[in-house]
Automatic annotation (TrEMBL):
MF GO annotations: hydrolase activity
SUPFAM superfamilies: alpha/beta-Hydrolases
Alphabetized Gene3D superfamilies for the sequence: alpha/beta hydrolase
InterPro entries per UniProt: AB_hydrolase_fold, Xaa-Pro-like_dom
Pfam families hit by this protein: Peptidase_S15 (PF02129)
Protein name as it appears in the record: Xaa-Pro dipeptidyl-peptidase-like domain-containing protein
UniProt domain Xaa-Pro dipeptidyl-peptidase-like: residue ranges: 26-82
Length: 82
């Protein structure tokens, strides 16, 4: 499995990683934002939710959802679709 997470820096608060390229098998990279629970909830592993959208994943409603779920202990990945 190819992962780019090892080289990323997590940013507090919200522990957010932006514009992570996720390679597809046809060579296309889809951008994803990864939200992790606050560090007060430990270092994982956590249950996760994958939200995919053809719209801007930085819309207020998506950010609100990510904050709500991370505060409840979930990791959230918001990925752009083709």
């Amino acid at each position: 499995m190819n992962t780019h997470i090892d080289s990323l820096t997590l940013i507090e608060p919200g522990r957010l990683m932006l514009n992570i390229p996720v390679p597809m098998r046809d060579g296309v990279n889809l951008s994803a934002d990864i939200w992790l629970p606050p560090s007060s909830q430990g270092n994982g592993p956590w249950p996760g939710l994958l939200l995919r959208t053809i719209y801007d994943n930085q819309e207020a409603r998506y950010i609100s959802w990510a904050r709500e779920f991370t505060n409840r202990g979930y990791a959230v990945i918001m990925q752009d679709c083709r």
